[in-house]
Amino acid sequence: MLDPKIADRIVAAVDQGFEAQLAFTEALVRFPSTRGHEAGAQAFMSEAMAERGLAVDHWKIDVETLSRHPGFAPVAVSYDEAYNVVGTYQPDNNHGRSLILNGHIDVVPTGPEARWTRSPFEPYVKDGQLYGRGAGDMKAGLAGALFAFDAVRAAGFKPAGRIFIQSVVEEECTGNGALACLQRGYVADAALIPEPVDQSLVRAQMGLLWMKLTVPGDPAHASGAYRSGVNAIERAWRIWERVKALEAEWNAEKADHPPYGAHFHPVRINLGKINGGEWVSSVPAECVMEIRVGVYPDWTIEEAKRRLEARIAEGAALDADAPPPIVDYHGFHTPGYVLAGAEEPERVLRESHQAVFGEPLAELLSSASTDARIFGVFGDIPSLVYGPKCTAAHGFDESVDIESVRRTTKAMALFIAGWCGLEPA
Question: Which of 25, 45, 112, 237 is the most buried (most CB within 10 A)?
Answer without folding.
Answer: 45
